[in-house]
Specification:
By secondary structure, this protein is of the alpha+beta class. About 35% of the residues lie in helices and about 20% in strands.
């Protein structure tokens, strides 16, 4: 059945490639919903054609004021409700619960802070000490997107980027703490099958585990203003452990150089 679902997803629905461990169950749910819609569509079209044939003027010259006494419509309605209940309660709700409740341990994950703004994405990694500097929403400003306390030494080596690539490690969980500087945005990576609204004043966690090396586009799934299309300027770059370490080493060296000059270049 898994192969049939995959064939239907890719060849009929045109689903994009998957690049995360938890992506297949989401695709399977989408496929099952489409199976139900397909059955309903075929059933309604068949009934429509039957009604045109059964109740045409030649076959039904006069009106029938009694109507149908069949119990079939009731049984069909109950069957549809039960099918929808199974999709919701047996598949969708447990899948949602697993995604939001079974978060990986931050010690075993790549932890990144993401701050959306009109119209781009800001990324922040902990530096060599592995600890983020203290933050306060009241400190957020144009030159301090993440509201980092400048007095906290733990924040001096933090790595901060704008748009470009979020670098993560293949087969290693990723935890993103998502916020917004201005309006409601929505962080969406189709290949990872993750979408989460970014709400001003909140820091919302989301997680995924990439399982395929490559570069995958980040999109904003909320219409956030006139420059909304520019929110497609970010990417998730899934690296091997070796490539990720090289990138981190280069960014830490750059951050150390910027700190010695009194700020980022």
């Amino acid at each position: 059945m898994s192969r049939i679902n995959d064939w239907f997803a890719y060849n009929i629905l045109g689903m994009p490639e998957r690049a995360a461990l938890g992506a297949k169950p989401i695709d399977d749910l989408i496929v099952w919903v489409h199976y139900l819609m397909l059955v309903l569509f075929v059933g309604w079209v068949a009934y429509f054609c039957y009604a045109l044939w059964r109740f045409n003027a030649k076959r039904s010259a006069g009106a029938n004021y009694v109507g149908s006494k069949s119990s079939m419509p009731k049984y069909i309605e109950v069957a549809v409700v039960l099918a929808e209940a199974v999709l919701l309660l047996v598949i969708a709700v447990p899948l949602w619960g697993k995604n939001v409740l079974q978060f990986p341990d931050p010690k075993d994950a790549t932890v990144i802070q993401v701050m959306a703004q009109q119209f781009g994405w800001n990324y922040r990694y902990p530096g060599l000490d592995g600890t983020f500097g203290t933050q306060d929403m009241k400190l957020i400003a144009n030159d301090n997107i993440f509201g980092v306390d400048p007095k906290d030494p733990n924040g001096k080596d933090d790595i901060q980027l704008y748009n470009g690539n979020i670098h993560v490690v293949v087969n290693k969980p990723v935890i993103i703490y998502l916020g917004s500087k201005d309006v409601i945005h929505s962080f969406k990576v189709v290949a990872m099958r993750v979408t989460q609204d970014a709400i001003p004043g909140l820091r919302i966690p989301l997680s995924f585990t990439p399982d395929k090396i490559g570069r995958y586009q980040i999109e904003c799934a909320q219409l956030c203003g006139g420059g909304h299309s520019a929110m497609a300027g970010g990417f998730v770059q899934v690296d091997s452990p070796e490539d990720f370490k090289k990138w981190m080493d280069s960014m830490e060296a750059k951050t150390a150089g910027a700190s010695s000059k009194g700020g980022f270049e």
